[in-house]
Amino acid sequence: MTPEKWRDEIVALLPRLRRFSFALTSSAADADDLLQATIEKALSKYSQFQAGTDLDKWLFRMCKNTWIDEWRSRQVRGPSVDPMDFRSELLVDGEQELVDRLSLSELNTALNKLQEDQKVLIALVAIEGHTYKEASEILEIPVGTVMSRLARARNALQDLLQNPDSRHSKGADNET
Questions:
Q1: Is the pTM of this model over 0.70?
Q2: What are the CA-CA distances from residue 116 to residues 4, 67, 173 (Å)?
Q3: 11, 62, 8: which is closest to 34 by C-alpha?
Q4: What does the CA dihedral 99, 25, 117, 161 come to, rounded to 10 degrees?
Q5: Please, are residues 127 and 89 in contact by the beta-carbon 8 Å criterion?
Q6: Distance between CA atoms of 56 and 29, rounded to whole angstroms?
Q7: Residue 70 burial by Cβ neighbours in a 10 Å radius (0-12, 13-18, 19+)
């Protein structure tokens, strides 16, 4: 693939990558920073890109890994800004009726209480429309793990939306 064609394909993926970045970060500014860092990495690694590799999956994996690195460094530094509200299209299937009754603030609170791996899966499958197989390739985990984690994520989100004081949290064990 020529460098020009490769860049054109990256440009075509930018809206989807930005949505994914926003779902991960909960902030438009942080999403833009994450997207920029991801694209910078991708452009610097053009020589490592192998023909036949799915550019979509390669970029989403790079974005996720960049976000994890940033998230870990923020755990040491602490958050720099408060998260913005999520948009209603960031919901898993079957949640629309409940959202109609919720404020974006309540939704934002519930999504931010999910474990990070659950938030990533909801972003990949429910927001970006990736199949379980594609999500497993992006995250480099088995399809069965994607399915079980996504089921737990959906259950946790539903519980948090119905019971805002629920114990689900980013560091909690949700399998009790």
A1: no
A2: 35, 11, 12
A3: 62
A4: -20
A5: yes
A6: 23
A7: middle
Nearest to 42 by CA among 73, 69, 72, 14: 14
Residue labelled with tokens 């440009």: 11
Q: What is the pLDDT along the chain (176 residues), one digit of tens a residue?
A: 788 888 899 999 999 999 999 888 888 888 999 999 999 999 898 888 888 888 999 999 999 999 888 877 766 655 444 444 444 444 455 555 555 555 666 766 777 888 888 888 888 887 788 899 999 999 999 999 999 999 998 888 888 888 877 655 554 444 43
Q: Given the structure tokens 């890994």, which residue do they identify? A: 65
Element (H, E) at 167: none
The length of the chain in residues reads: 176
Residue 26: left if φ>0, alpha if ψ -120 to 50, beta else—which one? left
Rounded Cα distance between 15 and 12, Å, is 7
Give all domains of the chain, ordered by start, each with its CATH number.
Answer: 3-77 (1.10.1740.10), 88-162 (1.10.10.10)
DSSP state of 84: P
Which residue type occupies 39?
Answer: I
Single-letter amino acid, residue 160: L
